[in-house]
């Protein structure tokens, strides 16, 4: 049976491995299809495509940052035209604001006596400033690793809990796209999308994406819901599978792998081949890439 993982990250955003290495880990994990979905960028797709073994399929994609009433909502998006002007403009704005936000958090950390520098955060992110602005995406995990290095947290999770999580002393907000508009942008660019880890929405009142929002996203063209995610417990998986059925969208399953940061878990959750085919059927932007 074809094994499909539709959510993974490389060092182009907040993953621990270069795009080429991600493909190697995916092959070793027994996957046949992998979507590379770095945050707000497709900057790693070309490098990943260059090392595909025969028969292995790469799905170009990204995890699009959205926000709704102060909570984070993420949209894993696939097969859109990366040169679509409106979508590209929004992505540049999102990436630029991520950088500004990270710099603000560095200043807040320094004001609280944490010895973290912007230069070190950029080094951890694997990009010089000019490179970063064009293709790479900085994320709080980069900042968290710098905090751990500085001895101000035990590990990445502790850095979030103590310093940079929502409401933390060094937290700063940033620009993100309205989720319903984001679905429309991806669809207009010829892509398709699935709601990422809906039971893990930072800042949401009960920790989950509100159902009324998901209903409006589905009406705008949302194709799937990532019900099968490592952070979801069994009850949450059942709940979001039910929501997907009620809304007539497919259920996707994904590892949301970030390399060593998440324990190299590619293939920990997978998407059924028939669900994948239904999800990508309307896509007209770019095709999957097969080695």
Explain what the structure shows:
By secondary structure, the chain is α/β, with parallel strands linked by helices. The chain has two domains: 202 residues, Metal-dependent hydrolases (TIM Barrel); 67 residues, DNA polymerase, domain 1. It contains eleven helices and eight strands. Strands 1, 2, 3, 4, 5, 6, 7 and 8 form an eight-stranded mixed sheet that branches. α2 links the parallel β2 and β3. α6 packs across α7. The longest helix has 27 residues. The chain is globular.
Helix content: 40-55%
Q: What is the ordering of alpha helices and beta strands?
A: EHEHEEHHHHHHEHEHEHE
Supply the helix-strand structural class: alpha/beta
**CATH level-two architecture of the largest domain:** Alpha-Beta Barrel
Task: State mean pLDDT (0 to 100 scale).
Answer: 92
Alpha carbon gap, first and last residue: 18 Å
How does the major sheet shape up? Answer: 8 strands, mixed
The low-pLDDT segments are 128-134
Rg from C-alpha positions? 18 Å
Which geometry do the CA atoms define? globular
Q: Any idea of the CATH class of the largest domain?
A: Alpha Beta
Beta-strand percentage range: 5-15%
CATH topology of the largest domain: TIM Barrel
Number of helices: 11
Write the layout of secondary structure elements.
Blueprint: E1 4-5, H1 19-28, E2 33-36, H2 45-49, E3 57-68, E4 71-78, H3 85-111, H4 118-125, H5 129-134, H6 140-149, H7 156-164, H8 179-188, E5 192-195, H9 211-220, E6 224-228, H10 234-247, E7 250-253, H11 273-280, E8 289-290
Organism: Nocardiopsis flavescens
Pfam families: PHP
Domain Polymerase/histidinol phosphatase N-terminal: 4-68
């Amino acid at each position: 049976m074809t094994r499909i993982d539709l959510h993974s990250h490389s060092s182009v955003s907040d993953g621990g491995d270069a795009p080429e290495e991600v493909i190697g880990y995916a092959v070793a994990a027994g996957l046949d299809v992998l979507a590379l979905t770095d945050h707000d960028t497709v900057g790693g797709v070309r490098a990943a495509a260059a090392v595909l073994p025969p028969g292995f399929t790469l799905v170009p994609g990204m995890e699009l940052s959205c926000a709704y009433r102060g909570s984070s909502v993420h949209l894993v998006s696939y097969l859109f035209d990366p040169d679509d002007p409106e979508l590209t403009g929004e992505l540049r704005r999102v990436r630029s604001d991520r950088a500004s936000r990270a710099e603000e958090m560095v200043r807040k950390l320094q004001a609280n006596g944490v010895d973290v520098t912007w230069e070190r955060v950029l080094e951890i992110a694997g990009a010089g400033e000019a490179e970063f602005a064009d293709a790479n995406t900085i994320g709080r995990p980069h900042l968290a690793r710098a905090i751990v290095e500085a001895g101000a947290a035990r590990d990445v999770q502790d850095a979030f809990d103590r310093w940079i999580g929502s409401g933390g002393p060094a937290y700063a907000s940033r620009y993100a796209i309205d989720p319903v508009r984001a679905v429309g942008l991806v669809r207009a660019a010829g892509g398709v999308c699935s709601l990422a880890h809906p039971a893990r929405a930072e800042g949401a009142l009960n920790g989950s994406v509100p159902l009324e929002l998901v209903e409006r996203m589905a009406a705008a063209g949302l194709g799937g819901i990532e019900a099968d995610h490592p952070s979801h417990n069994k009850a949450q998986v059942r709940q979001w599978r039910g929501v997907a059925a009620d809304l007539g969208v497919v259920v996707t399953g994904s590892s949301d792998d970030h390399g060593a940061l998440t324990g190299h878990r590619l293939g920990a959750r997978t998407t059924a081949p028939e669900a994948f085919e239904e999800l990508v059927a309307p896509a007209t932007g770019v095709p999957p890439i097969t080695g």
